[in-house]
Write a structure and sequence with these properties.
The protein is α+β, with helices and mostly antiparallel strands. The strands form three sheets. Strands 1, 2, 3, 4, 5 and 6 form a six-stranded antiparallel beta sheet that branches. Strands 7, 8, 10, 11, 13 and 14 form a six-stranded mixed beta sheet that branches. The radius of gyration is 21 Å and the shape is globular.
């Protein structure tokens, strides 16, 4: 290999690393930083229950509005009364309002994988944590979890699979609008300790999946974030 060839390879590698870093930075900049747990008496807020919010988003609460935001990276929940909220990563800037904050148990940084990756060579057992390098895993306190993904126009197909069965067994499927869905009360009851997989297929987007299990003895308060299984943000 000539010196010129080696130089071109080195430049290509450096360029690829730099490009990859830039792409990751861009993706991070566009990622949601918090979830709206509640919004009340704020007609001009521009957000609703279970919406993702992004850095720089301005939320007008006026004098009587209330807002609860839970942040993925800091595991912080802010309850805000009145004022103007400018969303930032980890916490927000509030002008003219009152803020109270508290930590919540943190499992929000779980990775999200495509169905193809998740199904490739993974081993699953009843024991938590689940085996398999590429699984995303959540533990929820309720047998009626809420699944959350980035909304897309049109109907989104959902499937819940029992991964303890051999082969994995379809438990429930349906189509929904929007970017979140609560497991129906009249659907087959989810069992404690069993590894389940949620598959979400928004229109025009590759299927995304996450693993979750139910543990009613989980030592967390029964809040919105304790119920949520995230599929991308």
């Amino acid at each position: 290999m000539t010196k010129i060839t080696r130089l071109f390879i080195l430049l290509a590698l450096v360029g690829g690393i730099a490009t990859g870093g830039a792409l990751r930075a861009t993706a991070d900049d566009k990622a949601a930083v918090a979830l709206v747990e509640a919004v009340e008496n704020a007609a001009n807020a521009g957000v609703g229950f279970m919406d993702y919010v992004y850095p720089g988003k301005v939320i007008e609460l006026g004098s009587g509005g209330k807002l609860a935001l839970s942040y993925f990276d800091t595991c912080l929940t802010e309850t805000i009364a009145g004022g103007r909220v400018t969303v930032a990563k980890g916490a927000s800037d509030v002008a003219g309002g009152q803020v109270s904050a508290k930590k919540f148990p943190c499992q929000r940084a779980r990775m999200v994988v495509t169905a193809e990756t998740g199904e490739a060579g993974a081993t699953v057992s009843r024991v938590t944590p689940f085996a398999g390098q590429d699984w995303a895993e959540f533990t929820v306190k309720t047998p009626e979890p809420v699944f959350k993904w980035r909304a897309a126009a049109g109907a989104t197909a959902l499937k819940v699979m029992d991964m303890d069965a051999e082969p994995p067994k379809l438990i429930w499927q349906g189509q929904v609008e929007g970017g979140h869905f609560a497991y129906p009360a009249d659907a087959p009851k989810l069992k404690v300790g069993v590894p389940y997989q949620i598959q979400v297929s928004p229109p025009g987007v590759s299927t995304i999946v996450a693993m979750f299990s139910v543990d009613p003895d989980l030592d967390v308060p029964d809040t919105v974030m304790a119920r949520v299984v995230l599929l991308g943000r």
